[in-house]
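To whoever picks this up:

The nightly regression suite flagged Competence protein CoiA family protein as changed. Nothing in the input moved, so I suspect the structure step. Input below, exactly as stored in the fixture:
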Amino acid sequence: MFVAIDQEGLMVNVAEKKWSRQRLMRLREERIFNCPTCKQEVDLKIGSIIAAHFAHKKYGECPTVKGSHESDYHMRGKHDLYHWFTSQKGVESVQLEPYLQETRQRPDLFIEYNRNKIAIEYQCSTIDTRILRKRSQLYHQEGISYLWILGAKTLTRVASQSYRLSPFQWNFILKKENSAPYLFSYCPKSRAMIVLYHLLPFSSQTVISEHKHYPLPSSSVHDVMNLQPYKKENLHKEWVRKVRSFRLKAPGFQSKQSSKFQQYLYQTVHLPLSYLPSYAFLPLANNYIFESPVYVWQGWILLFIHAISLYGSFRTHDVYHAISMRMNDGSITSRSLIKQVSFISAIDTYLMKLADLAVVVFEGKDRLKKINEIRWTNQMEELLKEDVKIIGSI
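Regenerated output under the current build:
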């Protein structure tokens, strides 16, 4: 940590630029420091690689700090972000490691930006998800906005526009209305904010996403916070490549949900997963709500519609109920997030897109009619061409 209280009760922030190495060494000789929260004595560390900071004694433990021993990576990142926010127009104030009495927590930073108070947490390691959610909920209960920034070293990039996100990392996503989620991360080595935006999950952990680097020295808060429109054609090309790979690659390990769905698919239409219609791979903004692979939850809905006779009607509630039953028996899983969103919104988005694709038509707010049969085929070349056509039209 960078902030401590000396023996006279004065708050000392060693991240401020006024401290030279000589002044810091003199400061360490002349004063005794204590943690502002737990009041235990702390040591002033003056290194040559990492910025000067305070550390709890070896056997000290502070219950309000995310970790008594912060990594160099975390310390450097927090230090960079503090100075970046301090230099920004529109940021009225920046507090480093303040203790918030109302939540009994110490965020890494607490800023006022455009008259909004925001607690900023920079997380570089995995912690108990319950702790993460509790911290976020306490901010929310007190009317404090919060922003979790992920340590960029924890991101796993598997292709040019493909990443692997763990269930823990999904808790860091942000969402704006009518858009897919996005995620902030920071790398102190490159001194750049890395934003993944328009996240489209293909499976429980693999996502297609655009990304952008914002070097701190040349970027403003406005640049980072106001995301640029994504290039839909690029993401959809990557999505089509992902579907193609799924269709053509020999199946390896399958999850219980995929195996169960494939067994039912064989019994119903006598086809394997790789021959699912293109309608089971639609890249939609609300896909993130389901943790199950896109082809599993969309596939179950297609089978529901397949069982309805041509020009037959059904209600949206019927689909909700059918999927709810699949969730109850473990066939489908929704994603567990800090800001939980109902799975119904994902189903609604999907049904509206099926209406755009002339599979169904809405006869009212919550009533639909099947107007075209879903075509099941074992002709792979036809499916690959259809993927390009349908996904490219979304």
